[in-house]
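Weekly puzzle thread! Below is a chain. First person to post its structure in token form gets bragging rights.
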Amino acid sequence: MTSLILAMMPIIALIWMMTKKNGVPSYIALPLTALFVAALQIFYFQTDLTLIWANIIAGSLSAITPISIIAGAILMNRMMCLSGAENTISRWLEGISRNKVAQLMIIGWAFAFMIEGASGFGTPAAIAAPILVGLGFPPLQVAMLALVMNSVPVSFGAVGTPTWFGFSGLGLTDNQLLEIGQQTAMIHFVAAFVIPVLALRFVTSWTEIRRNYVFILLSTLSCTIPYFLFAQWNYEFPALVGGAIGLTISIGLAKLNVGLGKVAASPDDNTSKQTVSRGEIFKAMTPTLLLIVILIVTRIKQLGIKSMLTDATEAVSASLGNLGDFSISQALIFKLSNILGTNVTWAYKALYVPALVPFLLVVLISIPLFKLKGSMVKQVFCETGSRIKMPFITLIGALIMVKLMMAGGENSPILIIGMALSDFMGTNWQFASAYLGALGAFFSGSATVSNLTFGGIQQTIATTVGLPETTILALQSVGGAMGNMVCINNIIAVSTILGISNKEGYIIKRTVIPMIIYGLIAAVMSTFI
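Winning reply:
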């Protein structure tokens, strides 16, 4: 019991610091929590000091992955803004429909759904959220909407990575993985009747939601029906296919004003529609379209490019003495292994992490496309640099904390919490299973890492208490997805991109409510599967 209480104290302390009145900023709260966990590991769990330092080094280096993605997203956002492309897209979307709910569903739901299916890594919010802010929606509310909306497709994000890679170490057959995907999709399908509505409530009123509910429902189903059907025979493409079909249908429905309440006419409506030509729209959308194409062709393994970008064949290596062994692969994967003589390893896939490719690449292509002057290009890069300073400190603190919470094998704080929960619930574990997956995503910032971390525990619990293995793993997958709503990394990322400061605790307090509801839906659904 003492171990459990101490293991949970850092989580309780972090949540209290970030959600209390006049909450502590994340760039202070997270490093303090990491220090707290380190002290617990040293003085109570008596973890080897070398292993602790190795995890601190790996955690610090791991911050390069999310901060490079955030930097890439901000870079593209500033380029789109300063080039005028963002304004053109906003006027075009208003031409499709001036109805605010339609705009939120098209961009915040269907478009983000498709981007999640292609890439994951937090890119849906990074791309969709700035467009919505450009349409006049308040940044803080958009951030919360984006976090909640980007949950249903996550289990099949980045071409199914959380499913096929997240459970890769469990010795499952292909049929078992397919069954997990089928059950996961079923739970998400049912939850999607509620989640988009809860997300919309952050931005608009219940009155507006009721007036436009038919469109909301049709837009939701246009994504989730093909998503669910595709999951019956494939666990890689449901989100990508569902999002692409849903985006097309949602735009068509909005143009025809199907299921939408009337919007008061504005004197400049006709002017807006006439001034945005097809050529202007295509030019303004070129960076986004190019981004999507690059994401898709680099994520679908059948095309062969993914294997090239993730080729781990060593090209250069060198010993850094006690620090570890450093190597660079043919695909520019930077790796530091055997850190301080331990089995702790860090790696950064420079060409696969969506930072250099596609964000920086698309920005460099767009500079001559929009004929940006040198002073404007300098402004784009300077504004990006100034925005990522504090988030970088925050992410270092977050990832050191994560590494230390997971350090210690079976005696690690995170596994102690997981096993204590399973002992407490017994055969009723299915009602709490999704929340363990959400806890993993909350800490690690990734549904994939949550599945990698807790998949084995969930499998063991299922076997021990006699519950269906595939159902419990499906609940884990759903939990990892719904945990994106409260995930520290995602909150930091979308806040940084939208220029929101010190609101992480405020966001968590509000997005945790739909996450809890999501978990209840998953628990109820598990009794029918």
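Puzzle host: Confirmed. Bonus trivia for everyone else. The beta strands are 314-319, 325-329, 333-337, 346-349.
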